[in-house]
Automatic annotation (TrEMBL):
PANTHER family: ACETYLTRANSFERASE, RIBOSOMAL-PROTEIN-SERINE ACETYLTRANSFERASE. This is Protein N-acetyltransferase, RimJ/RimL family. GO terms for molecular function: protein N-terminal-serine acetyltransferase activity; protein-N-terminal-alanine acetyltransferase activity. The keyword Glycoprotein does not apply. Residues 9-169 form the N-acetyltransferase domain. Gene3D superfamilies: 3.40.630.30. Keywords: Transferase. GO terms for cellular component: cytoplasm. It holds the Pfam family Acetyltransf_3. The keyword Transferase applies. InterPro entries: Acyl_CoA_acyltransferase (IPR016181), GNAT_dom (IPR000182), Ribosomal_N-acetyltransferase (IPR051908).
Length: 175
C-alpha cells in the first residue's frame, strides 16, 4: 500500500519528518494506555518510527489530513496465511470525527483486494469502548472475549474483545 485517500484523509508511508508529531501523539494518555508502544522518550519515538518500515508481515502508515497534519496511525500486522490483525490510534484533536473507522474500513478493503486477505482481526481491551465503536462502524463482527490476553500500557493484562471482518461480510455504509 503506497497511499490511500479517504475523503479528506490520506493514508501514507511514515516519514522521518513525522517524528515531532509522533512524539507529541505518544504523550496522549489514551494512546499510551491502549497501544502500549513503549516509547517513553523522544529517542523511543524515533525507534518506533524507524520500525514502521514495511515488511513481509506488516504494513504501517501515517494518517494525515490533506495539509499533512498527523491525525493517527494504522497498521496491518501478523500478515500470514491469508489473515492479518489491524491496529490504529488517533490523536485527541481528531477524535469524534470517525477518522479511525473510515481509515480501518479503507485499509481492510485494500487488504482484501490487493493482498487477497481472507480475514482481518481487530482486538481491543474490554475497557477501550471507543475501539468497540470503531470495529462496529468499520463492519467487523464480534466473535468473543479473550481472557487476560494482552499486557497494555498500565502493565496489566486485560481481557480483549475479538472482532473479525471477512470479504463476504456486508460492507459498512454509514461510517
Amino acid at each position: 500500500m503506497v497511499r490511500l485517500t479517504v475523503g479528506e484523509l490520506v493514508v501514507r508511508p511514515w516519514l522521518p519528518t513525522d517524528l515531532d508529531a509522533v512524539w507529541a501523539a505518544l504523550q496522549d494518555p489514551a494512546i499510551r494506555q491502549w497501544n502500549g508502544s513503549g516509547a517513553r522518550s523522544r529517542a523511543g519515538a524515533a525507534e518506533w518510527l524507524a520500525r514502521r518500515s514495511e515488511g513481509e508481515d506488516h504494513v504501517s502508515r501515517a494518517v494525515v489530513d490533506t495539509g499533512g497534519l498527523l491525525l493517527g496511525s494504522v497498521s496491518l500486522h501478523s500478515i500470514h496465511d491469508g489473515g492479518a490483525e489491524i491496529g490504529y490510534w488517533v490523536v485527541p484533536a481528531a477524535r469524534g470525527r470517525r477518522v479511525a473507522p473510515r481509515v480501518v474500513d479503507a485499509v481492510v478493503r485494500w487488504a482484501f483486494a490487493e493482498l487477497r486477505l481472507e480475514r482481518v482481526e481487530l482486538a481491543h481491551a474490554v475497557g477501550n469502548t471507543a475501539s468497540g465503536r470503531v470495529a462496529e462502524r468499520a463492519g467487523f463482527v464480534l466473535e468473543g472475549r479473550l481472557r487476560q490476553s494482552y499486557r497494555y500500557g498500565d502493565g496489566l493484562r486485560h481481557d480483549e474483545l475479538l472482532w473479525s471482518r471477512l470479504p463476504l461480510d456486508k460492507e459498512p455504509t454509514d461510517i
